[in-house]
Amino acid sequence: xxxxxxxxxxxWRWAKKKMSKGGRAGDGPTAREIGPLSPRGxxxxxxxxxxxxxxxxxxxxxxxxxxSVGVDPYPGYVHxxxxxxxxxxxxxxxxxxxxxxxxxxxxxxxxxYQELYHREAGSTPKVKEARIAQVLAEIQTKxxxxxxxxxxxxxxxxxxxxxxxxxxxxxWSELVLLDYRAAATNGEMFxxxxxxxxxxxxxxxxxxxxxxxxxxxxGSLLGPRIWNGQLHKFxxxxxxxxxxxxxxxELAFTEFLETGLGWKAPKKxxxxxxxxxxxxxxxxxxxxxxxxxxxxxxxxNIQHPENEGFQALGLKWVAIPFVSDIELSVGGITxxxxxxxxxxxxxxxxxxxxxxxxxxxxxxxxEAFGLDTKxxxxxxxxxxxxxxxxxxxxxxxxxxxxxxxxxTLLQNFYExxxxxxxxxxxxxxxxxxxxxxxxxxxxxxxxxLNKMIEYTLKPAxxxxxxxxxxxxxxxxxxRGDRQVVNLFANWALIRVLGRMKGKVNALRxxxxxxYASVSGNTRRYAHRMKQMLKDFMTVELVxxxxxxxxxQGLESALAWVFMTSTYGCGALPQAAKPLxxxxxxxxSQEKMHEKPFTVIGFGDTSYPRFCAAADSVMALVMQRGGxxxxxxxxxxxxxxxxxxxxxxxxxxxxxxxxxxxxxHTAIKELLxxxxxxxxxxxKAPHVPFRVVKWVQTADNAPEPVPRANMxxxxxxxxxxxxxxxTEVSGHGDTARSTNLIKLDISQFEFLKYSAxxxxxIFPRSKRSPELLEFANNLGIDDLxxxxxxxxxxxxxxxxxxxxxFVTALTEHLDVxxxxxxxxxxxxxxxxxxxxxxxxxxxLLLQELATDPEMAAKWLAESHAxxxxxxxCFPSLVGNLPIAACFxxxxxxxxRAYSVASSHRFLEGREVHCLVQRLHYTLPNARERSGLCSNxxxxxxxxxxxxxxxxxxxHFRLPINPEAPILMVGAGTGVAPFRGFIxxxxxxxxxxxxxxxxxIHGCRSRGELxxxxxxxxxxxxxxxxxxxxAYSREFGLPKAHVQDIILANQGRLRVYLQNHAANVxxxxxxxxxxxxxxxxxxxxxxxxxxxxxEDGRYHEDVFSVDGNI
Length: 1108
Known about the structure:
The chain is an alpha/beta fold. It folds into five domains: about 1-145, no CATH class; about 180-235 and about 275-470, no CATH class; about 510-660, Flavodoxin domain (Rossmann fold, 3-Layer(aba) Sandwich); about 705-765 and about 895-950, Translation factors (Elongation Factor Tu (Ef-tu), domain 3), CATH 2.40.30.10; about 965-1105, Nucleotide-binding domain of ferredoxin-NADP reductase (FNR) module (Rossmann fold, 3-Layer(aba) Sandwich), CATH 3.40.50. Helices cover about 30% and strands about 15% of the residues. It is built from 35 helices and 42 strands. Strands 21, 22, 23, 24, 25 and 26 form a six-stranded parallel β-sheet that branches. The longest helix is centred in the N-terminal third of the chain and has 20 residues, at about 100-120. The chain is globular. Keywords: Calmodulin-binding, FAD, Flavoprotein, FMN, Heme, Iron, Metal-binding, NADP, Oxidoreductase. GO terms for molecular function: calmodulin binding; FMN binding; metal ion binding; nitric-oxide synthase activity. This is nitric-oxide synthase (NADPH). It is an enzyme of class 1 (oxidoreductase).
């Protein structure tokens, strides 16, 4: 059979006819089915192979549609001589493509991929045929073809799905493509790499990305090259003592950088110096070396949660793995430069720091923990590796960077792998790479996956030749040996891809549970809820990824229950997309009208926009006409997640009982906790400890009382001395007095912060007459007395003991905290004895405990605090045991203030915060003062302050220093911007800066803070413009920051139209609303919405109550 060169349509008709004999899409013509292009006039010659040939190459006779299957560059771990890869007998072909010309291979792989892509995209046969005809025409005309954006992104995702050595493939469908195929020079390639780094770092390792540069010409490696193994790698140097300083795995490449490319290493060399990038857009031109600016590098300092000596080791690691020594093959097109990132597994970093061929830090870690390294029998290596793993996991959590533990990783891979086999019928795998190097046998994967088969499926990732071969290939682009790339393990858990199926019992009303999970936690709670309810109701469990509104269980369900986690910076998980798409259609309004539903969100209050995805689901369903049956619940992973979940389930069950005829008795037997009566049953508090007097020594002197444990309680504490305190506005202890406090943190080498982060201050209550009276009413005669706690149930005490009463009541227990309704219910069980008010307060307490509405009103009007307790309820005097009071009193929580300094600008010596004294009058005419603000305002130089640092990754300067920024703040909201200005002064040493505008609002000139520093910033170019809005300055018209924005909208619009521009707002909720409305006028609403969606609009919004 012969086709002329221009007859691409005929070529497609012939190919379609051949493929139609086998059945399913995704099958393509094999190596033998499309013959070579003859040199005679461009004719196309074809030949046919046998059925055996087609079966061995995974051709059209296999209905699974996985295309051609090869062994090369595998096998890595294959059982049997001719292992089958699917139930239809397909086997990997040892020499797939042997005898083919590059154009034949291109045609075969292009057609196979188009079949696969259009099958999975759900395209019509007409669309598929037209596209394949277009591809073949391009190949006939120019010898190659261009993949569309969607084709390339899907190909990159499928390549991840096909990677045998990767244990995190469950997130393959979430990979995001950054298309840089238009880059033409080394400089443009470097700029794209920086943009890619900025995009990935901004998400804090919650989104996987791949950056694709232009592909190589088919049949050659004339494509872009990234010589580095990863975009972020540490250097290595040989010292005069013959010791390697840095990462030994990078010693050869570092020496090549210096001797071969002329790179100059830093004068002050360290173990963790970032390598420059070596980029080569055109292999016929020499490569170039590019230094990565510090702002494009994110490093996590490795700290141990308990061992302070561990910090002295100075360990750190890059936050995100940017793998760059891979090639991506999609549809016969090879992308020789395609760096990608996921997120680390803990064991990857542990091995990098522990392996003898790498940093070899286990001996030093063992010494820090006092382990015996002289004998193997002490298991010191195991102990040191365990502690290192704990430190890595703790440090990434503190830095708010994504990381996954190896147990969860294997557990979820195991589920995904079997789901994949059930769904597609095949999935390659390499046992040796999948299994974790730590605790291997504790996972079912250890034995359950040891018969996995490894083979090559296209699209595929393969290892690039590498810098050593590039050195010899500068003018000879040859193809070298490859091996499959090991993709880095994910931080997030893999969601279940299979559809949850079950029979519907028509005799019982049903409940539909729709869940969307990122880490797997929400999915587990959804399964748990089904197990709890399945015995007395029919439960339809649906992954939102598999949402189908016509599904029988959904249509017949009495109510829909939505359970969702939050993805990234407040977005819904990727699994929720099918549901969101349906809710945006008009057809959903009819189905959802008056449909009973409820929502619970799972999240973490340490992250911004807590459970924002649950808020979104609630709003969307309400817009479509749904009827909410149970209030929105938000479960906090840090505290009370279990209680919130059980309380919410109880409410759901109670609604179900009230709307069905199911026996309440039967439900009570199965779910007793959900069947409490409406009547509140008051119970005396269970106190898990008792207070005992401190035992003195023989000479009648008290034992030394230790200071507070640094890690006691929920919040970690450090202690630093005040090196300076300056009143920058106001006078004395007045309500408008504002102080700049500087703490010396030079002794904490492991403590690092970024401009925009928070410093948490632990306040101390004053030793006041009020406190003395409170203690006397508790029966504490001597505040300086020392006491101990004897735990009755083995639980640890709330604060370190032994301790003085005054220390416990001023530093660890918050006697100024507001009393809650739950506390009133508990205290009502203790009153009645020793009544000193004729029983009136005792009766009031009983009424408040049993009437929630009355309690809420009384608490709102009285503003009662714990220190006011005995004044409100005198009958409690002498009847509230010390242990019960200490058990009920809340722990003193830290107050967060924006960092007003830059760690790098101050070289890690200090951290600054700006605090305004708070004084206010209650509606009942009582005067109150802010506990923490006045404590900080009263500190003097030399005083010790308990503090901690907390990351705020949502409020950071752009990674690109040249990006325009607009800063808007009122009052003390200027604090983080002082840190930004200092950080920009530091960055100015390394290159140019983009424009920076500050708009600050205050009452009068007397409250304008940092005026001289801001003017210096203008003079040095660190600050471009500085505007002040005075709201109460005599002789000036009243103005707010939003007025300044609108008055200068023409100038601001020029900056904000830049696609890299970022806006920062720090202030009250009221300020946020006003500024948002002003910016929408300046930019127009769609442009502002895009800025928010891109993560370039940052808010640090606070309320007064938060820091009282």
